[in-house]
Queue: 2 jobs
Job 1
Amino acid sequence: MNRISHWIDGKVVEGTSGRSGVVWNPATGEQQASVDFASAAELDHAVAVAKGAFASWRATNLSRRAEVMFHMRELVSANRKEIASLLSAEHGKVLSDALGEVARGLENIEFACGIPNLLKGGYSEQASTGVDVYSIKQPLGVVAGITPFNFPAMVPMWMFANAIACGNTFVLKPSEKDPSASMFIADLLKQAGLPDGVFNVVNGDKVAVDRILEHPDIAAVSFVGSTPIAKYIYETGTRNGKRVQALGGAKNHMLVLADADLDMAADAAVSAAYGSAGERCMAISVVLAQDAIADQLVAKIQQRIPNIKVGPASEPDNEMGPLITGEHRDKVAGYVGGAAAEGATLVVDGREGAPDGGGFFLKPSLIDHAKPGMKVYDDEIFGPVLTVTRIDSYAEGLDLINKNLYGNGTAIFTRDGGAARQFEFDVQVGMVGVNVPIPVPVSYYSFGGWKASLFGDQHMYGPDGINFFTRSKVVTSRWPDPSTSTIDLGFPQNR
Ligand code: NAD
């Protein structure tokens, strides 16, 4: 049985806690590896190593830090297939999807290659006579990342690229369900020339997370996962004096107005709902269809579903893989099974015809006439289930989106530029698509939701990422000039 351990101080370190977790092969339902779960003492060791590496890494000049990032960019690019196959093996996503994940993660390393420019401060010459004022951005120290199962390569890249480039040292606690990509990335960072101890991976569960949240030497925690855990991380981490950004779950609505191109909207809804088996925080899970076109749109989505090829990633034609665990598959199937009793209409039942064998497969489901108050509408299902809610107007659709607990992503499909612009203005959601169903921002913007999709002030990566992983310092400076030196006990003023 393959054993996955920790990566501390530039090498693999076997766990000593005696605790471990199962890493499944979701396509077969069999265990493929075990992953060591760290004790609090093992987490402490990783933090001590990261702390020891900080002084020299933060003093490393910007050219050298950028050089490491450029090198890493080349290594990830050269190894994209290897990383993608690790993702497919442990997460289950098909290879094309896994390659997309690596490409979107890589953007963040490319962004961090510009670190000399990104860390520029401001400078005011002659703020007062002979006095200059300038601001600088400095790293925080040891920072931690805690990541979810659904993007085992991209989400760590969202965090560590900027964190390290800013001069911090990093401890990553990946999802225990698919930890191998993080270990592979750690090795690539070493090959890229990153000094030992700057990037560490500690595998584990709540024990490791709780120690991160209370460890006095961890300055900041970046988290991505479900809303209840995000809230817990934010509350506990900030109570312990840490800077925390905690991204949570989602229920992304796609508003389809009567004038939309319905074929384009149906293609987009199918791609965004069922891609990666719906296990994306930016997946579309609700279509809000204006009454006038709702029947047509539901029919168009229904027609497309049988063409989706569901099966293991090992077959290159497949478009949708299994879910992450048998338990999660059963939970998602439970929502589908309960929809009719709640008063919704089960148009396509994905529990039927899933691939044979022990894999955690479920085919796409389509549920019409879903409404607030039904579990299938209210809950984040995180599986290949698309619900349709019928609305009579733009205003009703907007109201549903703005009342929703979550505010991660949303999209409007219309040909009316005025309606789209009004939507951008009105909607209380962090990431908005106009005829784009999964509006994940490029790496030079920042990623983050509103409401219960984000706890904290700073969004992830991009300019917010640089702000999150640095703190600013303002220097007011005067060089001795005998001709201007006087004694003045008054409060300093600009003269
Ligand atoms: P999760 O919240 O179960 O786990 C996330 C991390 O928290 C993992 O590393 C896990 O080990 C740890 N964790 C889990 N339970 C814990 C506990 N009780 N105490 C301390 N730590 C704990 O999330 P998941 O199932 O891995 O990922 C899916 C969720 O992540 C979905 O809700 C999805 O919407 C969300 N997500 C959000 C974004 C975003 O950017 N907003 C991106 C990806 C995923």
Note: The longest strand covers residues 131-139.
Job 2
Amino acid sequence: MSIKLLRQAFNGRQALTPMWQHHALKDRYEVVIIGGGVHGLACAYYLAKNHGINDVAVLEKRYIGSGGSGRNTTIIRSNYLTPEGVLFYDESVKLYEDLSEELDFNVMFSQRGHLTLAHTDASLRTMRWRAEVNQLQGVNSSVIYPDEIKKLAPYMDVSDRPRYPVMGALYHPPGGIVRHDAVVWGYARGADRRGVHLHQETEVTGIEVEKNRVTAVQTSRGRIKTGTVLNATAGWCSLIAGMVGLKLPVETRPLQACVTEPLKPFLDTVVVSGTLHFYLSQSDRGELVMGASVDPFTSYSQDSTLSFVEGLAGHVLELFPSLAQVRLLRQWAGLCDMTPDYSPIMGFTPVTGFLVDVGWGTYGFKAGPVSGKRMAELIATQHTPDLIAPFSYDRFLAGRLVGEKGAASVGH
Ligand code: PYC
């Protein structure tokens, strides 16, 4: 134990150094980022670090990481279906690989491998398709069969007993899990150290536009003049876009998740089943972190339900019958902004100075680093980086959709 830690233990809270500072709200910032989750914080961090732009405010209506960044199930992977998606998420995996060093903060990225199970001929075909696309982009994925799956997940029933027996899986060794709070706090601390102002408990109530150009943001703590606003919210992205009169092709749905009591380590891969609608991993603390597909209705409710855990438990027990006596510790819900093609919306919009990094459905956390880095580049250079060009707002007008439904976590 370090001397510093010992001193803190004896002195109590006074000795703790805050991770970031509190600032008075200035009446003008060069860039205002709405949303204090991984996307907004990463963008602020890279703006300051890579481009020397630190006259930046990050506005968060609650506390840092209180939205999707604190509610996701932390799965990191790049085994997508389209070349555009694979290349984009692959850059994020690479950034995650170096993130602890980059932020000088242990984000506990564990590349334990990711299995997407196939229980039908049709899903096996999609796994083969994804494996081909992944390999062509240099991403490590391949289709494996029950005998190999059993070696990776010995407690999973790969026999003919389950109602939908496992026929194969897309195996993606670089995939894994990360400690989501650490990622958010690391970016927040890194941005703060470079001069960015993080404003918690600061809700955006309006955005002023003159002659189709953003001029100011109104907040619960006062008005800020600015020419650049980034909407980096999840769950509320259409409401924020509505403040400048912009309609987004987004439907907001709750996504529920839960965690069990800690168990001895027995599962060191991430397991996803689209057919059975669940994903499962074992955290460093031994808890099983599990989730399903988005709720089948639009809502801003973050309540979680008994019917969700009943349905999920039934499906998980099909493949992991030995978990029958394991107790649930807690359950929660987050909000997912679903787009028609299951890809995000990033970049410029028809309103000058109003930028978006939204539409993150159920896949936002894994994209935090790459989105932050590339949106910072876009803001600094006023040019859209090639990597995120396919996800532009105008693709919906041009009919250039990036269909990722076949690779979204579970069948939604
Ligand atoms: O896209 O990997 C994913 C995912 C897992 C849980 C929700 N989304």
Note: The CA atoms of residues 336 and 361 lie 5 Å apart.
